[in-house]
Structures are given as structure tokens and as C-alpha cells.
Amino acid sequence: MNDEQKRELAIAMKLLESKKRAKCFDPENLDSVPTEQQTLILKDINTVAHRYCLGGNRSGKTATGGREASWVFTETHPYWKREASWGGKPLTMIIVGRTTTQVQEEIWDKKIKPFLDVNEYTETNVANKLVKVTHRNGNKIIFFSHHSPQEAREKIQAFTAEWLWLDEMPNSFGLIEELHARVQGTGCRFLATFTPKVVNGEIRKLVDSKSNVHKKYKLFMLANPINKTKEQLEKIAARTATMNDAYRKTILEGDWYLGEEAVYQFNSQVHVVKDIPMSPEHRHIVAVDPAASGKAGYVLLWENPVTGKWTVIKAAYVKGNAARPLLDEFNKLTGQRNVVRRICDPHEAWFIKDAAIEGYTYDGVYKKNERKKELLKNVQNKLDDSTLTIADWCTDLIDEFTTCQWSERVRDKIVGASRFHLLDSLQYGIDDLPKFVPFISPETWEAMLRRKNKERQVLEQKRSAKAKRRRRW
Predict the structure, then answer these.
(1) What per-residue confidence (pLDDT) applies to 260?
(2) How many CB atoms lie within 10 A of CB 234?
(3) Does the predicted TM-score (pTM) go above 0.70?
(4) Which residues does 316 contact at the CB level (< 8 Å), separation at least 6?
(5) Which one of 127, 140, 143, 253 counts the least CB within 10 Å of its CB?
(6) What is the pLDDT of residue 40?
(7) Spatial distance between the Cα atoms of 424 and 372, rounded to a whole number of angstroms
């Protein structure tokens, strides 16, 4: 092979490599492709405005964001085209990472730049920190960090973007709201990728709620092709061996981490139920927690007449700081059910007194203030032995279970304790459960006739036997 042929071969090989790099998922493996779940995330860019990708460490979540960023930046995305209404104007893309170092070294240098031709873009640095990258087609990526959520909000407010990627979850619901506001136009897209280690009830509620504009995805560490070798599996096993089960599931499967300070060990897969054979004639308990602030908690528990187990079938907040309107709302929620007991926070004596005048007897909780830990433990014990479950439509109560945390600074103090009125109501109800009495269904007319006939036959047999004995004498 002469020199000219060698040059032509080198050019052809470089061209082939360039084509493969444009399509591959991992720049270190030109034959790589995204997993099935990663493909779903990439395809949904056309139909889902806000995508939330939860994954464990090394599950491929940041790789997914980086690959999509490079495709949008060069406008070569296999599943997406720019909106016609945008015309030919250059795209503004925003990437928000945990720190400026992480943004530059982990996201830009490792996850985006390897897919690009060095002649396609120019970097803009300020004080040796990367702030912007501009493609020769005019598209630009602007980089921010969210190590200081308030500072990030103030800086980002000046921009609007067609595409925005948030990598790693900040402990600020307000920042996420601000980021949503930056991509409000037609066809604009928001992508978030994170391991949910930070405990934030508002963010979790947002991500988990059902909506037409957003969708949640899960990526698993062991599903990532880079973790398939024996050596990698051994490293993962060694690294996670000393973790508690909750944290291990966060790392491996991207489950929400409740935190070591969680008041309740609540597992939605175990403690939440869907199919409930309830009937209005079964026994029910109403437990309420009126508040001077005018936001009362209400919980309705149903007893399974066969097993004696209890299920929360209603949990709601009711506005009002006067007994009569509160009672009206409580009665609407209760309906025509067989309520065998009503329980209330004894501190709210005004409510108990006024309710009695209206004909409703509410029992107080014995020494509530002195038995706070006992009340908490009673609920946990009921959860642990499966004698308490929560209906899956009681979402506000489920949220309180998963966000109630002990303070790291003050011993035995619950963070924001005054806002968990549904949990307080449930504690009162569990503390005063009636003794289990198996439910006996009313006898039908046909069943009564059969029983009476059987009794008549037995009586006639006894009379006949007695008559025979008399004849022998």
C-alpha cells in the first residue's frame, strides 16, 4: 500500500469513526447503544415537557443527559427536531450542576465534549471557569451551579431557554420552579437527572405526582452495561455491603431515600393498599386534630370485620377554626358510615365542648403530651405487624409519612412538627382503637326458615324419643 492509499484509508477510517461517534451512546465505545429505559427517555423529548430521571450511582443517568445535550447542541438528535415556530434562531441551552467544577469536569469534559469535533465549538471561560460554549451553528450552552440555590435563582432569572438540564437534585423546591419558568415556550424541554439522596417532601411530591406535562423514569445501576463485568459486580457488592437497606435501594435502584432521621419506617409497597372490601356498615373511627391556625387534620379508619385490621380510607385537611363548620365538613367526609368512636386532640377543649353541644362525643387522648413517643411507636408497631395500612388515594398522609424527620440539632424534636396534622390525627385514632369483635352478617329470610325447620326437626326427634321411653315403662 503506497502513501496515497494509506492517506485515503486513514481519511476513510476517520470518517467512519466520526459517523459512529455521532450515533453511539458512549464515546469510549463506538458500538454502544442506550438501554431500553434510556431510549424511552430520549424518545420522550418530543411529548413530555418535564422529564425526571431517577437513578442510582453509575446507572447511566448523567450519561443520558450528556448524550441528549450533545445531540440537541449539534441538532442531530435521532428523535427530535426544533420547533418550526423557532425559525432559524440559535438555541439557548442551560445546564445546571451541583458545583462549577462538577459541571466542567464531569458534565462538559466527560459527557458532552467527547462527542463533538474540536473545530465545531468555542469555549468561554471567566476566571478559569467555564461559563458558555458556542457551536458554529450559533447554538450555545450556558452553565450554572446550584451549590447556592438562591444565588443560582438570581443568575438564571435573566435567561430563557429551549432546553434545560438539571443534574443532581438541589434541596430547594423554589429553584426547580424557577428552572421550569426558564423553559415555558412551545416545544421547550426540561430534563432532571439525580440520585434521590436529598430528603425534600415538596420535590418528591412534584416528581411522584401524576401530570400531563411531566414523567418520572427509573434507571438501575445493575442494568447499566458498564457494570456487567465480574470485577464491577464485586466492587458494587463490596461498596454496598455495609449500607442499610433503604440507602442501598437508593444507590442501586434510585428509590427515594427517607434519611436516617426518618420518624417512620414507611414502605409504600408494603403499607399502601388499593383493593379494600369496605362497607358503610362496618366499624369506622374518626380522628381529628383541630388547629388554632384554622387547618384541621381529619382521618377516617375502616376496620376489616374478618381480620380486625385497620385501613385509613380518608385523610384530608379541613379549613376552619370554629366547631360548627368543622363538624359539617367532617360529617361530609364521613358520610353515612357506622362510626363507633370519635377521637380528638384533648388540647382543643373548645372543639370537644362545642361538638358535645351539637350531639357529637369526641374522646380525648390520655396524657398526649407525656406520651408523644409512645403514640409514634404505636403507629409504627401497627405498620410493622401489618394491622395498619393506608389506601393509595390518601396521598397527603402518605407524603407526611415519607417526609416526617427528626431534627439533627434538637434531640427528640420533629422538624416542622406543627404541620403534620394528619399524622397526629392518625396517632390519636390508633391509640384508642376498640376491641375487635368479629362482624356477623344479618341472617337472611331463607337462612332463618332453614334454621327454624332444623330446630323443629330436632325438637320432634326429642319428643319422639321421649314418647318411646314412656311406652317401654
Answers:
(1) 60
(2) 10
(3) no
(4) 298, 333, 396, 422
(5) 127
(6) 95
(7) 10
Range scoring the smallest mean pLDDT among 24-38, 212-226, 313-327, 338-352: 212-226
- What percent of the chain shows pLDDT beyond 70? 92
| Angle formed at CA 29 by CA 28 and CA 32, multiple of 5 degrees | 135
Cα–Cα distance for residue pair 407/414, rounded to 1 Å: 5
Give 68-133 as a DSSP string. Answer: HHHHHHHT--TT----GGGTTPPPEEEEEESSHHHIIIIIIIIIIGGGS-TTSEEEEEETTEEEEE
Per-residue pLDDT band at 323 (split at 50, 70, 90): confident
Sheet strand arrangement including 310-319? 272-273, 388-391, 310-319, 295-303, 283-289, 338-344
Burial of 275 (0-12, 13-18, 19+ CB in 10 A): exposed
CA-atom Rg of the chain in angstroms:
32
Residue 294 has a pLDDT of 78
Q: What are phi and psi of 368, to 5 degrees?
A: -55, -50
Task: Give the containing element (helix H, strand E) for 39.
Answer: helix 36-43
State the residue for C-alpha cell 468561554. Answer: 124
pLDDT for residue 191? 97
> Quick check: 76 and 135 in contact, CB under 8 A?
no
| Residue 44 phi, psi dihedral angles, 5° rounding | -70, -5
Range from 24-33, 46-55, 455-464 that averages highest in pLDDT: 46-55
CA distance 128 to 122: 15
The amino acid present at 27, given as its one-letter code, is: P
Q: What whole-number distance in Å separates Cα of residue 433 and Cα of residue 303?
A: 10
- For residue 224, the 8-state DSSP code is S
Other CB atoms within 10 A of residue 186 CB: 10
Beta bridge partners of 295: 319
Q: Is 124 left (phi over 0), alpha (psi -120 to 50) or beta?
A: beta
pLDDT band at residue 242, thresholds of 50, 70 and 90? low
The CA distance from 179 to 167, in Å, is: 12
